[in-house]
Write a structure and sequence with these properties.
homodimer; about 250 residues; alpha+beta; Nucleoside Triphosphate Pyrophosphohydrolase; Arc Repressor Mutant, subunit A; 2 domains; seven-stranded mixed β-sheet; three-stranded antiparallel β-sheet; about 25% strand; elongated; DNA-binding
Chain lengths: ~250, ~250
DNA sequence: CCAAAAGTGTTGAAGTTACACCCATGC
DNA sequence: GCATGGGTGTAACTTCAACACTTTTGG
């Protein structure tokens, strides 16, 4: 800080990242596999690790994410701080901490972050330096290491809330996408069915999508129109449109 | 933690509380005055301090708040973590830290919380153990210690967002209140004018207020009807009404 | 009787919901 | 020609925004 910069690990603070991806069908979360030290099993955790002393929190989250998955330079939104004194007390977790941490008994508070990325932009490579990071469909995720399940739930809740008040999630899709894909994305995140016609009307009325000439090819049904997201119009809309809240 | 409980201060983590109060006219925030070590001036800060090792974050926030202001057992909502490495680097702040902290150079990450309380429930007593905690009207608050201004702004933003999606803020008012007072409260928090008739209609339609027989007395104008908040109906409404978001 | 705030309705516009059929393509 | 998902319109209803005058009280 201030005068003496100090590039050492801070043994008390970590950052954990909830990275959402969408494969045009279901919502996924990027998890890393950890070998349990005791058994043969692996168990799953969010990508996360201790921060450095001289590192801003969001920088740390990005660095840790990069080290564990290879993802780079992602906009991360903070979920909040998680710091129950017993959040590291499950036997599996204790074993893992003992194996890798200098001070395995330290109380660690973690700051949760989340982000949305296109699953095509990140294809996990089992053989790479990114140790086994994999996309797991969100309905298949059960218990996670530490309190990571709670962090994931918090992130999903924030994502839902945000999605209902402003259009986001375009980075979960490829550059060119169809309205049906966007529709499925919304349904996957919110976990509800949305009327097709009303959804389309609402989306198009916002005037942040640009319809391309291009259409789907090789599909065994009427080919779908491609759209792309117009970032310029989106930002104009953000300024004017979304400040005016309910009242 | 886990096996060896450890009731010592955690030198790296603090909790800061943004307590909103309403005097039936303007929105206030509870701040504590700190003597600058160097000059004669005082400067203002949020009530906050380091947490204990064995203490959950929200427990810590409540304890710290109690120690500094006397307020007890408040429901605190988390704003988030604030951890810029240079958040403690202003000269005034450094001087204060050197005077009171064991390790004044440590990097401290703080968790911000906010809450709403009735200003009548808490009348600061200059002579009490609560060192000079006072209500300051929110428009009069300028710079604060550390990054407390940023925490305050974050809390206010969350409060606004929450207020626009669900009715809250009844704990900012006395038990019996008039619709005009509630109206002023909303305007004070949101910082905008709201149409009187539309506001009343909307509030009453939610059916969470109970009109009392009682009316104002001794006012030099038509006396206003008193209402009280019906918590039961509010919770019923929360279950059914506010899950259904925009889509 | 004056000042001050309380209280009250209507209208037009916008937004929301619900709902069913035809279309273009590959096989 | 059939299976598949793409694409379209309308009507009833609810919500929202804008707007001005009368009432009750104290002094």
């Amino acid at each position: 800080m201030h005068d003496k910069m100090n590039h050492e690990l801070n043994p008390r603070i970590s950052a954990d990242c909830v990275i959402f991806g969408f494969d045009l069908n279901t919502l996924n979360v990027l998890l890393i596999e950890r070998e349990t030290v005791v058994g043969l099993d692996t168990y799953k955790a969010l990508p996360g690790d201790l921060i450095f002393e001289d590192e801003p929190l969001d920088t740390a989250a990005n660095r840790v994410l990069n080290e564990l998955t290879g993802l780079e330079d992602i906009y991360l939104e903070q979920v909040g701080a998680f710091g129950d004194p017993d959040r590291l007390s499950k036997p599996q977790d204790r074993a893992w901490l003992k194996a890798v941490r200098q001070d395995p008994d330290a109380r660690v508070i973690t700051i949760g972050y989340y982000s949305l990325v296109g699953m095509n932009n990140y294809v996990p490579q089992p053989a790479s330096f990114a140790r086994a990071a994999t996309w797991i469909p969100i309905e298949e995720i059960g218990e996670l290491a530490f309190d990571h399940r709670e962090i994931l739930d918090g992130a999903l809740k924030k994502l839902k809330e945000k999605l209902t008040v402003q259009p986001i999630g375009f980075n979960l899709l490829p550059e060119k996408f169809t309205l049906s894909q966007l529709h499925r994305l919304y349904e996957a995140i919110l976990g509800v069915e949305l009327d097709k016609r009303n959804f389309r009307r609402k989306m198009l009325k916002m005037d942040i999508l640009e319809s391309l000439e291009e259409r789907q090819e090789g599909v065994p049904h009427k080919p779908s129109q491609f759209y792309k997201f117009n970032e310029q119009k989106y930002h104009d809309l953000l300024k004017t449109g979304f400040d005016n809240f309910g009242f």
